[in-house]
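Pasting two entries for a bug report.
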Amino acid sequence: MRLFALSLVFLSVIGCSKSPEPEVKSNLLIYCGITMIPPMQELAREFELAHPVNVTLTQGGSQDLYDSIKLSGEGDLYLPGSPQYRSDNLKDGILLDYKFVGYNRVAMMVQKGNPKNLTADLEAFVSPGVNTVLANPQTGSIGKASQKVLEMSGLYEKAYAHAVYLTTDSRRLVQAMKNKEADATLNWYAVGTWDKNQDFIDTLLLPESISQPRALEISLLKYSSNPELAKKFIEYAASPHGQDVFKRYGFLTQEEYDKLKQ
């Protein structure tokens, strides 16, 4: 009888015990310029393994992304392709703490094998017989950067008038080359280092006097629903490991940039 009673107590305890509840995960929404998506995807996967969080990356042209942030009033972090998007928009009070993660620079890209025998000379962008595609300065960081490079060479208006068409961002510039719609474009140097692009693109480095590296800065948004976790991601992306990841995708570290200046 006693054994039967103990059995009932044991079964009662088992029946009342609750199954472990699944871990509740936080969410981070990161607005990221297209060129930085590959390293950010890698860092996001690693961060998810180390923290109870789901990281969502929204990609696009840097200006389009900022406009989306303002319109939606949502999101945790913003990584544009140029520091100008931070400095120009600080007045809005949306961009808070930030960290440096690497440098990018504008380069000239030509068809694989360089069939037109072009050199790293921006005169190609106003030369008859050379088809060019450029990015719109109003939509993305590469467009604004291309505008400055061409302005420094006194070729901005002529080059944009000469272009076969204008497109929105670095990914569509690559597609123009892949479709052989252009003999030359201006795009971010990192894009030309990726394996998937090297079969149809050759990259020509422009002189640093007209193509200075642009700092990449990831900013906390005032709309963040989890600012402490968002700050941890910033620190992770800006860490030596994070910068090494960016380096593997063709972005310059601070040390490499300092060497260029010497």
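Entry 2 (this is the one that rendered wrong in the viewer):
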Amino acid sequence: MTVFDSIRKAIVPIHKEGYPFIAIFLVATLILGWIADPLFWIGLFATLWCAYFFRDPERVVPQDDDIVISPADGLVSSVSEEIPPQEMGLGSEPMLRICVFMNVFNCHVNRAPMAGTVRGIHYRPGKFLNAELDKASEDNERNGVVLETAHGSIGVVQIAGLVARRIVCFVENGDVVDAGERFGLIRFGSRLDVYLPAGATPRVAVGQTATAGETVLAVFGDFELPVAGRRI
């Protein structure tokens, strides 16, 4: 492997959603530098952070219909039984809910937790409370995606946070997605909630760090974790 190949492999791709923001930060940096030299370095740091925020690395996704993988990078903030948002049509009975909180330094590209078909997309405007708070699930702006999977319907909810002001969803009704496939993105700092039907057993604990597309959040049945994966 050449030095060029090593450098190329070490550089993490940037998601196209980030290009306009990086350009804005860069222009602002040049303007600040024209005003005062110290401001240029502050702006440059902010521009580098913006590029880092919109990184979109490949992940090695475990391949099996009996596992649920994390849809987001971040901290597992809750594992509990909760009633899913009414608009998603998942019923009025509690389901296993696993929440992953993303801070402004986490990768914010969201990935499908299981393979399935999109059976509903439900956007609801709301507040912008700290996404770590439990009431953010009810009060904050959110976008819920219902996936029909081998184990029934599951819900994946993108929740805006204190700083986030834009939820982006790439999929549409009827789309077929693979586990680990990119389905959305949130800007800047937010949370993902996954609602799972009966039969799912959590494999993570509160406070654990999760990696989108790789960390197994839950399993169905007596399942032994896989070793085979697919790079996406």
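Dev reply: Rendering is fixed now. As a check, the viewer should reflect this: The radius of gyration is 19 Å.
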